[in-house]
Amino acid sequence: MSKLKIAVQKAGRLNEDSLQLLKDCGISIDNGKDQLKASASNFPLEVLYLRNGDIPQYLKDGVVDIAIIGENVLIEKGNDIGIIERLGFSKCRVSLAIPKGKNYKKINDLDGMRIATSYPNTVKEYFKKFNVTPDVHIISGSVEIAPSIGLADAICDIVSSGSTLFKNNLKEVEVMLKSEAVLAVSPTISSESLLVLNKLQFRIQAVLKARKSRYILMNAPNDKIAEIIKILPGMRSPTVLPLAEKGWSSIHTVIEKDTFWEVIDELKQLGAEGLLVVPIEKMVV
Predict the structure, then answer these.
(1) pTM for the whole thing?
(2) What gap in Å lies between CA 207 and CA 236, rounded to an integer?
(3) Is a pLDDT exceeding 90 seen at residue 261?
């Protein structure tokens, strides 16, 4: 079986999260310090560590088969590249920001204004929808200082917490797009590599589903079981087992992590006791 070639960011948070995902999929990477290429010891996978901005071209050229990359980078440099899985980490937004002292009412206020960015294509496409034409200045790195040194009137950059904007006396005025890490595939991937990709994607889906879910166990009075089952959004059907104490049963199921507290409150109101909620390592549905 041929090795599937995957590109991940060479350094930074996206690199760490990408390698953790592969680890959670049971894939061991023989990773040496400062290596630009490494192979998995227990799966037909080869990892290439690349600059984030270069990855779309590597996908287009077929140098790598797949990549874990920020969706914002694909939109800027490779919007013709297919996305086969949204991974749920490295979330951010691409936003427009201006100095705090400036007034802003609508997007037309930026017509003809100088905007510093490393996302020129994203900016032009966004403003085109409003028939607005800014003066785009393409720079890489330290975009946020451009207004303070007189290089630009506004900036377009990725924003996570907003702390960098705050430190540079900027305020966010438009969210142009929201982004997260995605699994992208080369348009030239071979049929043999596609078979390996299907195996990898199956593992990834099992890990992602588990991250979003929690296994819940509880004791409940038998006369409330029907009502409890109605509010449990779990899998096909909860498991109900009789307890040694007459009139009580143990209920086991899976709930979504995001609805955890709301569901728990409802269960307690229906008399559920001894609730135990635990993480799930893998989940195959």
Answers:
(1) 0.86
(2) 19
(3) no
For residue 263, report the phi and psi dihedrals to the nearest 5 degrees: -65, -40
The position carrying tokens 């990477």 is 29
Dump pLDDT digits (tens) for 164-221.
899 999 999 999 999 999 999 999 999 999 999 999 999 999 999 999 999 999 999 9
pLDDT computed for residue 78 by the predictor: 81
Helix (H) or strand (E) holding 80: none
Helix (H) or strand (E) holding 119: none
- Token pair in block for residue 105: 């009412």
- 180: burial class by Cβ within 10 Å (0-12, 13-18, 19+)? middle
Beta bridge partners of 157: 95
The conformation of residue 26, written as its DSSP 8-state character, comes to T
The β-bridge relationship of strands 114-117 and 154-159 is: parallel
User: What type of residue sits at position 34?
Assistant: D
The residue whose two tokens read 């997260």 is: 180
Tokens 């705090």 belong to 100
Q: In sequence order, what E strands does the chain have?
A: 4-9, 37-39, 45-50, 66-70, 82-86, 92-99, 114-117, 135-138, 154-159, 170-179, 181-185, 213-221, 239-242, 248-256, 273-279
Distance of CA 189 to the CA centre of its chain: 23
148 is written with which tokens? 């303070």
Q: Are residues 95 and 176 in contact, defined by beta-carbon separation less than 8 angstroms?
A: yes
